[in-house]
Automatic annotation (TrEMBL):
Keywords: Aminopeptidase, Hydrolase, Metal-binding, Metalloprotease, Protease, Zinc. It holds the Pfam family Peptidase_M1_N. It catalyses: Release of an N-terminal amino acid, Xaa-|-Yaa- from a peptide, amide or arylamide. Xaa is preferably Ala, but may be most amino acids including Pro (slow action). When a terminal hydrophobic residue is followed by a prolyl residue, the two may be released as an intact Xaa-Pro dipeptide. This is Aminopeptidase N. It comes from Roseovarius indicus. Signal peptide: none annotated. Residues 29-179 form the Aminopeptidase N-like N-terminal domain. Residues 533-847 form the Peptidase M1 alanyl aminopeptidase C-terminal domain.
Length: 849
């Protein structure tokens, strides 16, 4: 039964469940290896369903007893669930099952992490807790009773009776099982308080293991900011008396939005200045907001089925980006989001794992928590907002909340509220949800007699299972600059709906310079023949911060491609332009730090491949090194000045202002280190009193090959702190020399602190190897081998994390025959493993093609 070939599930096969649930009552008798779960579920026939087969999901459960309306029954049980004869009138199902949390290394269902009980049910983990219709369109209020010796016993909703050895919880809001949560442990809380705008008091808590109390304050502040922001910007109030957040060390993902009881990977919630970097703080603020925002976009309105995952995730990512833009710098947030989108989503969209934002089929839903569903899903919301305007968007959202509160909705429902609120026809927009692939947007222009015309042509390359890609509506934000650098046309949104389309602008005194796709108004690849002089001009004059940054990025990329293709020297125009920008004190330091960034090795490999050249990972790394060295020399005077100018002397704050200054100063430290061999970095390391400064210096030392002393000192200082030691593992691998990376990763897997059971630690070691692109793709093939070895070891313990990490191989078709053969051999070796999980089988098969 178990190894029958995995079944593909199709969106078109959706049918509603045959029953509805009026109430769920669960009792947990906790025991590490034999927890009893007693369920009492009131079912009644669903008048909207035809199929009345009574099937309850259930996996790895020991059924102790079952009854219907008090009469014992003997259901038909398989590895996947049970079926049973039931009356055609309302009835009460009762069952008792036994589960083994301690043996649960997949971290799905009820499991143990460092002595505490916790759950993870999205997407399909509740079926490992008890027999249930484990699908998001079955909603019910839950009553939960937990019996256990632990000091803290938590579940969803509002607290009920609590006493010695037990606690009861009542969640009045009907929810699907994937939002269920339970936590039990000897935890301590960091308390807080919020009063909603209608005056309802809410008790807030961040729960952690003893010892982590001093890492909670920032999460609490972020939560309060999020609650306020959602009231002010979206009019959404919190709806329970209590909101709990729990930090868990062993967790597959970032965090989970369980109703009233968010569970977080401890890396995504715990922070203080000594142990966490500015980037950690920013990420934590965003994830706290993301999970909190799910209370409305995800929980109050959930998804009808898992194909609609982007309904909650795309929208919630969009909302958390808006929040970060409001809390910090909007320009910096937009640029960082686009960098991440291109690195992860474009990469996915241009390879064997490409899939629509709303997929049409899957084998294992866990494999679809992807950059496409999340980040591209968020881009689609941004485009909708651009197309209908701020007011239209606000009206549509109000209608969405009003109409669908309490529903399990679809993308059709979502687009319908936009159509009704704004009167627009969004039929063509739907293609963004159904068609995979990144559109290419070719841009040419001409000018005659005061009329300037932009010509656009769109095309989307085929993706697995989809060859035909009709045109989509693309909002193209455009501005025009006059020859002296003044803006002659402010940003206008052109709506492209056809394959080829032209837009004219009249009454111009001279040929303007176009600034196309301002703010990255659509997730497309712009193809435009232009020269470096024009880029330097835009870099200097564009009023749109995204395109200003983009002009600098294009200069850097094209210079690097010329080095790689034609053996050119580093481009002087780029070196001058980046210096001019760094010198410009009117620009936000964080923006300047982003402008100092270079395309990644992976970006360059993709660009070469798209241009018909086989990328050589070693050559790419060397070109980047050459350019970085040339920059360091060109900025020999500027770098120490910037470094001194942007030292933060006030007490540490993880806010945008201080983080920007530190980022720029540490960028300067990188330049300095290339010439001084690490002296300045060592000084900074020795003096550092926060993790941002310490880690930046440590990275510089490792890159300079001078990291031995710091590596030892860092470990001695932080060996007691798991999250900091994750950084220690990861930095050594990420910064290892090309020929050493695989060996360093392999050596670290032998360190006593390495563990396969902790996903953070596993990723810090093996995920870091994939991040060291040149090391991973080392011609010997040892990078591939080490990663495959460990994925094979992890799969039986934790299929979900294994499968996600397989995407390290997704770009393999780009490379030379020798590397392709080596990767193919590793992929085949993984696929040949007996009993390979469904998760990993699906991923590797799709990658292998
Ligand atoms: N729903 C979570 C989020 O994006 C992510 C998640 C998915 C966590 C599946 C765990 C398991 O907020
Ligand atoms: Zn989410």
């Amino acid at each position: 039964m178990k190894d029958a070939s995995p079944q593909t599930i199709y969106l078109k096969d959706y049918t509603p469940f045959g029953f509805r649930i009026d109430e769920v009552a669960l009792t947990f008798r906790l025991d590490p290896s034999a927890t009893r779960v007693i369920s009492r579920i009131a079912f009644r026939p669903n008048p909207e369903a035809q199929d009345r087969r009574f099937f309850l999901h259930g996996e790895k459960l020991k059924l102790i007893s079952a009854s219907i309306d008090g009469q014992p029954v003997a259901p038909d049980v398989t590895d996947e669930g049970l079926t049973c004869e039931v009356p055609d009138t309302p009835f009460v199902w009762e069952a008792e099952v036994e589960i083994d949390p301690q043996a649960n290394t997949a971290l799905e269902g009820l499991y143990m992490s460092n002595g505490m009980y916790c759950t993870q049910c999205e997407a399909e983990g509740f079926r490992k807790i008890t027999y249930y219709p484990d699908r998001p369109d079955v909603l019910a209020p839950f009553d939960v009773r937990i019996e256990g010796e632990e000091k803290v016993l938590l579940s969803n909703g509002n607290p009920g009776a609590q006493g010695d050895g037990f606690a009861e919880w009542h969640d009045p809001w009907p929810k699907p099982a994937y939002l269920f949560a339970l936590v039990a442990g000897d935890l301590v809380n960091h308390p807080g308080h919020f009063t909603t705008r209608s005056g309802k008091p809410v008790e807030l808590n961040v729960w952690v293991r003893p010892g982590d109390e001093n890492k909670c304050a920032f999460a609490m502040e972020s939560l309060i900011k999020s609650m306020k922001w959602d009231e002010e910007v979206y009019g959404r109030e919190y709806d329970l008396d209590i909101f709990n957040i729990v930090a868990v060390d062993d967790f597959n993902m970032g965090a989970m939005e369980n109703k009233g009881l968010n569970i977080f990977n401890s890396a995504a919630v715990l922070a203080n200045p000594a142990t966490s970097t500015d980037m950690n703080f920013e990420r934590i603020e965003a994830i706290i907001a993301h999970e909190y925002f799910h209370n409305w976009t995800g929980n109050r309105i959930t998804c009808r089925d898992w194909f609609q995952l982007c309904l909650k995730e795309g929208l919630t990512v969009f909302r958390d980006s808006e929040f970060t833009a409001d809390m910090r710098s909007a320009a910096v947030k937009r640029i960082s989001d686009v960098i991440a989108l291109r690195a992860r989503q474009f990469r996915e969209d241009n390879g064997p794992l490409a899939h629509p934002v709303r997929p049409e089929s899957f084998v294992e839903i866990n494999n679809f928590y992807t950059a496409t569903v999340y980040e591209k899903g968020a881009e689609l919301i941004g485009m909708l907002k651009t197309l209908v305007g701020d007011e239209g968007y606000a009206k549509a959202l109000d209608l969405y909340f009003e109409r669908h509160d309490g529903d399990a909705a679809t993308i059709e429902d979502w687009l319908a509220v936009f159509e009704e609120a704004t009167g627009r026809d969004l039929t063509q927009f739907m293609r963004w949800y159904t068609d995979a692939g990144t559109p290419r947007l070719k841009v040419t222009d001409d000018y005659a007699d005061g009329t300037y015309t932009l010509h656009f042509e769109q095309s989307t390359p085929p993706t697995p299972g989809q060859t035909d890609k009709p045109p989509r509506v693309i909002p193209i934000a455009v501005g025009l600059l006059g020859p002296n650098g003044d803006e002659v046309l402010e940003t206008q949104v052109l709506e492209m709906t056809e394959t080829k389309q032209s837009f004219s602008f009249e009454g111009l005194g001279a040929k303007p310079v176009p600034s196309v796709l301002r703010g990255f108004s659509a997730p497309v690849i712009v193809e435009r023949e232009t020269d470096n002089a024009e880029r330097a001009f835009l870099l200097a004059h564009d009023t749109d911060p995204f395109n200003k940054w983009e002009a600098g990025r294009d200069l850097a990329r094209d210079g690097l491609l010329a080095m790689l293709r034609d053996g050119a020297q580093p481009d002087d125009l780029y070196l001058d332009a980046v210096q001019a920008m760094l010198r410009d004190d009117s620009l936000d330091p964080a923006f300047r730090w982003l402008a100092l960034g270079l395309p990644s090795q992976d970006d360059l490999a993709q660009a070469l491949y798209d241009g018909g050249t086989t990328p050589d990972p070693q050559a790419i790394w060397e070109a980047l090194e050459t350019l970085k060295h040339a920059r360091a020399e060109a900025m020999q005077d500027l770098a120490p000045k910037l470094y001194a100018q942007y030292q933060v002397t006030e007490p540490y704050q993880p806010n945008a202002e201080q983080s920007g200054a530190r980022a720029l100063a540490n960028g300067a430290l990188g330049l300095i280190t290339r010439l001084d061999g690490g002296a300045q970095a060592q000084a900074q390391y020795d003096a550092a009193d926060n993790m941002t400064q310490q880690l930046a210096a440590f990275s510089c030392l490792l890159q300079a090959g001078k990291g031995d002393a710091a590596t030892q000192a860092f470990y001695d200082q932080w060996r007691h702190d798991r999250l900091v030691i994750d950084k220690w593992f990861s930095l050594q691998v990420v910064n290892a020399a090309p020929e050493d990376a695989a060996d360093v990763a392999e050596r670290l897997t032998g360190h006593p602190d390495f563990s396969m059971k902790n996903p953070n630690r596993f990723r810090a070691t093996l995920g870091a190897l994939a991040m060291n692109a040149v090391g991973f793709h080392h011609a010997s093939g040892k990078g591939y081998r080490v990663l495959a070895d460990w994925l094979i070891k992890l799969d039986p313990l934790n299929p979900q994390t294994t499968a996600r990490m397989c995407s390290a191989f997704e770009t393999w078709r780009r490379y030379d025959a020798d590397r392709q053969a080596k990767i193919a051999a590793e992929l085949d070796r993984i696929l040949a493993v007996e009993g390979l999980s469904r998760d990993t089988t699906e991923m590797v098969s799709r990658i292998r093609g």
